[in-house]
Write a structure and sequence with these properties.
By secondary structure, the chain is of the alpha/beta class. The protein has helices at 2-11, 30-36, 41-62, 81-97, 99-104, 120-133, 149-165, 176-181, 228-239, 250-255; strands at residues 22-26, 66-73, 108-112, 140-147, 193-196, 215-218. α6 links the parallel β3 and β4 (140-147).
Length: 257
């Protein structure tokens, strides 16, 4: 990973420390892309799945540590039944089709969200692909499927409350680290960079805990049209951010004395 990250930085005229290691993406615009192409919305989702594969491969090649994709929210069940059914069939096929590429690239698949509620064909494919890639030591590909940031916090709270009730956890042991270990993302680093396509300026109930200090990058590009060059633009934009995590620059602090 480090070598690839260094090569990416050199190609972009940057230093490795200027690049993010962990990226999250809100993939938006599939339906609008299909509409502009005068195609059914399902074709937009199909093209969006191809884009997801391309960007995941780019992140492997660029030396990223993790990539988290917001794929299907709990709220998305409110969409028309025909569209949801088509999406579920697409997920079931996609989760099988990507297995050779995941193994070839040493990528580990992680699921974020509630498994219950997913159709059996999807949950079976998801579990099998995660089991197949469990021991891979390269990039983590986290798929947020049947996901909600608020539901994640609720589920974590319930797990913590149950542990306390059973005497496995003291009240004074409940801190940020404890909460983090009970989130769907336990063991994954928080995103350095959050990308949202299709110009929308909201987080849409995504990784509400984890993006506390993430840098945001919003692009007009619709997700099916988001390619390697688009990703590079996001990386360059990130490199110009001054990440202080609540502190201030030392030179500014000196100037105030």
């Amino acid at each position: 990973m480090e070598q690839r990250l260094g090569e990416t930085a050199a190609r972009l005229g940057l230093k490795p420390e200027q690049l993010p290691r962990n990226i999250a993406i809100i993939m938006d615009g599939n339906g609008r892309w299909a509409q502009r192409q005068r195609l059914p919305r399902y074709e937009g989702h199909r093209q969006g799945a191809r884009t997801a594969e391309t960007i995941a491969q780019c992140c492997v090649d660029f030396g990223m540590q993790s990539l988290t994709l917001y794929s299907f929210s709990i709220e998305n069940w409110k969409r028309p039944k025909a569209e949801v059914n088509a999406l579920m069939h697409l997920y079931a096929d996609y989760l099988v089709a990507i297995r050779p590429n995941l193994m070839r690239n040493n990528v580990r698949l992680v699921h974020l969200g509630r498994m219950e509620g997913l159709p059996e064909m999807v949950s079976d494919s998801l579990r099998e692909t995660m089991a197949l890639t469990r021991n891979n030591s390269g990039m983590a590909l986290a798929l947020a499927l049947n996901y909600s940031g608020r539901a994640e916090i609720v589920d974590a709270t319930r797990a913590i409350a149950q542990a306390h009730r059973e005497g496995r956890l003291r009240l004074e042991d409940i801190d940020e680290d404890c909460i983090g270990k009970n989130l769907y993302t336990a063991g994954l680093p928080d995103p350095d960079l959050l990308i949202r396509t299709a110009s929308e300026l909201r987080v849409s109930n995504f990784l509400l805990w984890q993006i506390s200090y993430s840098e945001f990058y919003v692009t007009e590009t619709l997700w099916p049209e988001f390619g390697p060059h688009s990703l590079e633009q996001a990386l360059v934009a990130y490199s110009h951010r001054d990440r202080r995590f609540g502190a201030i620059d030392a030179s500014l602090a000196a100037g105030r004395q």
